[in-house]
UniProtKB/TrEMBL annotation:
GO terms for molecular function: GTP cyclohydrolase I activity. This is GTP cyclohydrolase 1. Keywords: GTP-binding, Hydrolase, Metal-binding, Nucleotide-binding, One-carbon metabolism, Zinc. It holds the Pfam family GTP_cyclohydroI. Residues 22-193 form the GTP cyclohydrolase I domain. Pathway: Cofactor biosynthesis; 7,8-dihydroneopterin triphosphate biosynthesis; 7,8-dihydroneopterin triphosphate from GTP: step 1/1. Belongs to the GTP cyclohydrolase I family. Homopolymer. It comes from the Bacteria. It comes from Amycolatopsis silviterrae. Zn(2+) binds at C87, H90, C158. Its EC number is 3.5.4.16. PROSITE patterns: GTP_CYCLOHYDROL_1_1, GTP_CYCLOHYDROL_1_2. It catalyses: GTP + H2O = 7,8-dihydroneopterin 3'-triphosphate + formate + H(+). The lineage of its organism: Bacteria, Bacillati, Actinomycetota, Actinomycetes, Pseudonocardiales.
Amino acid sequence: MSGTALRVVHEPVPGFDLAAAESAAGDFLRALGISLDSESLRGTPGRMARAYAELFTPRAFDLTTFPNDEGYDELVLARDIPVRSVCEHHLLPFIGVAHVGYLPGDRILGLSKLARVVEHFACRPQVQERLTKQIAGWLGDQLSPKGVGVVIEAEHTCMTLRGVQATGSSTVTSTLMGTLREDARSRQEFFSLTGVNA
């Protein structure tokens, strides 16, 4: 039996205007006293606009699922999925890894799709807590698994490069649903396999 797929496309933000973003980036830099007259800085507003446009545009993908014909009922976990996002408070990057797992129900997911789902929700201004919940909730809705667990470990440059300048600090968030939340042994197994001390 072939897999079924749901096409996941992030809709462009209404009014997306790269030329206006470039102009605004130039105004922003000049307002901070940065001259754009040199050859190396002349193209910076355009590069800034394109860089943020890329950060806020996830790639479309097919969420491919397959019947769980073998009745697999143990944890499926993808560790160390790269995460890159932008904090919505300062528009500075945060980067790290996500560990995403689920206990299958009637369907299993193509493994690469776990990374695609992480990217889908990370490509927008975010807070790590919401990102963690969005990934778990969406997988729960799409797969109807017996449980879902998501842990994100990230360094926030809004905290390490400015303000408190807490270099080397990281933030850990988790969301557990279903059996991974309700059953202590399943929860412990999930955290043990992610390498996070619960």
